[in-house]
Design goal:
The protein is of the alpha/beta class. The chain has 3 domains: 2-65, lambda repressor-like DNA-binding domains (434 Repressor (Amino-terminal Domain), Orthogonal Bundle); 70-164 and 294-320, Rossmann fold (3-Layer(aba) Sandwich); 166-292, Response regulator (Rossmann fold, 3-Layer(aba) Sandwich), CATH 3.40.50. 44% of the residues lie in helices and 16% in strands.
């Protein structure tokens, strides 16, 4: 046993080897579950370790396994509750498999997405990448050097992916507004180069083509509360009876701004968000939105990363459909 500076002793792998009557390498292989070790011998090593109350050093274990037991997750905005929910689902699932999660925030920057994906991969066993701004051709080139890699809300080559079907969910929101009699709608757009924003715009174009009686006008906006609030005057000046926001944060900012101006929601203006973040049901009135299963996206992303790390065939690409959640912020057109 080794004596520490504080006078206490620490059980080492050598102590376990001596008690079990085996070599150091056999102890290492047995405790790390190496299938080449005879089962009876492995049991003897584990009994010796238990008797001595031996706990392997995480650093030493990582060196033996050639792994850090850590995966990186790159997200565009840690302040957004949707990404917080994805991380919560992912980190809890990873922890159950004795893995840690290193989180990197790209701050909605394409350059940061590119840099963080590469730098975090060098420090971890794999990368789970949520990079909505990165151009597709760059993403296609990048994933080859990141393996193992799992993508959230993106696809590239044969990399495993999980995503929410933003396009279908937005169509459901438009159908809801149309059924309520709304024919003049504004869309508060997200970041121009975002794939999520592109999916929403595609859904709008398809809807308008099939509903020539409906006009949807795009207003450049953003992705946060302040952006939605700043768009309030433009929305009121448009004469629209309904506003479709890129996400719940934008919708909540808009809701606050227009009500402060004396606009009644939904009497004068219906507002609909996207994501169903925890605060959405507590606004006044409660926010109609599309509920994205963000936690499940995180759980499923980890399941595919775990399979890659174990050398197994990863699960098929998974698409989850957000569910329209109707609350008090939408009503019949004035």
């Amino acid at each position: 046993m080794t004596r520490r500076n504080d006078g206490t002793t620490r059980v080492t792998i050598a102590d376990v080897a001596a008690r079990a009557g085996v070599s150091l390498s056999t102890v290492s292989r047995a405790l790390n579950g190496n299938p080449t070790v005879d089962p009876a011998l492995a049991e003897r090593v584990k009994d010796a370790a238990a008797a001595l109350d031996y706990t392997a050093s995480p650093v030493a274990r990582s060196l033996v396994l050639g792994r850090t037991q850590t995966v990186a997750v790159v997200v565009p905005d840690l302040g957004n509750p949707t990404f917080q929910a994805i991380l919560r689902g992912l980190s809890r699932a990873a922890a159950a498999d004795d893995y840690h999660v290193l989180v990197a925030d790209s701050a909605e920057s394409v350059d940061e997405e590119r840099v963080l994906a590469a730098t975090t991969r060098r420090r971890t066993d794999g990368v789970i990448l949520c990079a909505p701004r990165l151009p597709q051709d760059e993403l296609d080139r990048l994933v080859g050097g990141l393996r193992p890699v799992v993508l959230i809300n993106r696809s590239a080559g044969e990399a495993p992916s999980v995503r929410a079907d933003y396009r279908s969910a937005l169509t459901a929101e438009l159908d809801h507004l149309h059924d309520l009699g709304h024919r003049r709608i504004v869309y508060l757009a997200g970041a121009p180069r975002s794939v999520a924003n592109a999916a929403r715009l595609a859904a709008i174009a398809e809807f308008v083509a099939g509903h020539p009686d409906t006009e949807v006008t795009e207003i450049p906006c953003g992705v946060d509360f302040e952006s939605g609030a700043a768009a309030g005057a433009a929305v009121l000046a448009s004469g629209a009876t309904a506003a479709l926001a890129f996400n719940d944060l934008v919708a909540m900012g808009l809701l606050s701004a227009v009500q402060e101006s004396g606009c009644r929601v939904p009497g004068d203006l219906s507002i609909i968000g996207f994501d169903d973040i925890p605060f959405a049901r507590y606004t006044t009135p409660p926010l109609t939105t599309a509920a994205v299963p963000a936690g499940e996206l995180g759980v499923q992303a980890w399941a595919r990363m775990r399979e890659l790390l174990e050398g197994a065939e990863p699960g098929h690409p998974l698409t989850l459909l957000p569910e329209l959640t109707v609350r008090g912020s939408t009503g019949p057109a004035a």
